[in-house]
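Practice set, problem 2.
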Amino acid sequence: MDRHDGVTMTPEDVAEAHAIDLAIQDKYDVNYHTYFYDPDAGVVFCLVEGPNREAVEAVHREAHDASANTIIEIPDGAALDQLVGALANRRPDGGVIAPATRAILFTDLCGSVAQTQALGDDGHMQVLRSHDRIVRYWLVSHDGREVKHTGDGIMAAFTSVASAVGCAVDIQRSLRDAAVDVSIGISAGEPVTDGNDDLFGAAVQLAARLCGAANTGDILVSVAVRELCIGKPFEFRDNGRLTLKGFPEPTQTYAVTWV
């Protein structure tokens, strides 16, 4: 999957560009399966299969005299929905035009049941209030939006993937100093919204599952989050492929190194 930033084309122009790619792709043994365009963010993703990066780049260079900003290698068997969310607004040419992409972040207090038993309801609520205060402070600092409180955590959305990761790191550091243990999961994609500004879809489900699979103090992220942070001051370690509830294939995961 490749990414083009700073795109100012109309959806019709993007569709025409995609058609040119299709017309010459066989020359390079490449197959452009679909594309995803966010006009508001000026970003185009192309889902493409090819023998190597050079062949993928050659198609765009010949078709448009341009190269992608980033080429993301997708693990074998990964579904597009797991990377960019549910494919709403699909065009007849197979492309997707969406109003916005988002990074989705979940936090979750670790061991909340045992904590309630040990501290009592009042003690647990004090810990939860500390969590909420710290998380909301960093959401404001990183231009994140609280979508909802989940009972033992917070779900938030960001227009910038890097801002979501930076926010998660600051949250973990502050909560560590406050002796509050949480797990965090982050994914990126195109969530579906409703009239109440809640968010749904595969990107949300993946972030929630990553949060649930994370150990205490971990920040687990999807492949898309890691690759979209290329060039940013973050370090990631391979966390392996995990079997996540609701996803048909094991999902490649990465952990943010923040300590």
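Problem 2, part (b): a different protein.
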Amino acid sequence: MIQVSIEELKPGMVLARSIMSENGDLLLAAGFEINDRVKNKLETIELPFVWIFEEGTEMVVPEELISEQISLQTISSLKKNSELIRQVAQVKELTADQMKEVMAEPAKFKNMVSAERIKRSVQEILDSIMGRDSAVINLNSIRSKNGFLFQHSLDVTITSIMMANKLMFNRFELEELAIGTLLMDIGMVVLPDQIVNKTGRLTYNEFTFLKEHPNYGWTILRENNQIPLTSAHIAYQHHERQDGAGYPRRLKGTNEPPSKTLNRDKGYVHRYAEIASVADAYVSLINPRPGVLAKTPEETMRALIQSAGTQLNRSIVDLLITMIPIYPVGSRVVVIEDQKYKLRGFTGVVAKANPDQPNRPIVILLQDLMKRKIKPKAIDLASEKDMQIQFVPLR
């Protein structure tokens, strides 16, 4: 199977993976043949890409860290919580001053978040991730514009768990971290849609309003006696910076590994929030909000490294860099150097990762230099030292 953007879909292509709605309803089943009507429907729900069958790519099976069922159930829980909170807050087109009045009565949000449902999702996510022997973070979610916020929270949670597991956090710590990351953007749901869903640049006033969402999230979560306060602090602190220039309280970091110190003095970012901040930055780069181009793995690494030390905890960034797949399974690549087979300019997909040599995966070439289909050709780059490839972003 290969990834294809909606713009690249052509009649006759066959879906390799089913497409589900954010409510868990089946929209299109695997095996469905694409036609113009279906393509128009997919454009309407604003999916970034789909997986289709391609002869010769049967071995291309991207790893799923959690099942689609767990993913949909978790997103459904987040959505239901959000809908209840929006109803209580009576969100329509409130101004920042009006929202302050709403949040000035936090008791109205008492136990509004269904902690039991969230904790059940966390247990399922942890059981799934802990049951896999994976050293890299593979996020293969297909997100629509409407479900972006919830899928983003789930991807941040998966990334945070995998890093914290590497840091030898115990199960209790992992649970607190996961609860917090799933709910860290809960404050966004009370913001006006015209700000949350805006694809263009925010005005100064809009961004100032947006920066209140950590305060809103903290206000909502601390009113729930089933949500650990340490988890609620992730919502409160995930936009703080190591240099103290973040918001809302201008807390500082030490750039030390989060496993070193369990409790820090006042004025410093909680270690859970430091992990969440790095995961949030990573996911925002590779799976950005609608209207923003995704970064390549190389661009993502470069951006994270540039932010390390000042914005993000340097130790956590160093860890994450080792877990980012340079060539994720299913990603497109182009041959940029090859003397032996004369395949320069040929394109294909990554079929299998190489844990020992991440930059030397098995690839399947599908098109020649002129973009004409060829008989699929599998090449193990670990054995072809002179061949060099380059990641091709899906646009």
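Answer key, part (b): The first strand starts at residue 2 and ends at 5. Residues 120 and 197 are 29 Å apart (CA to CA).
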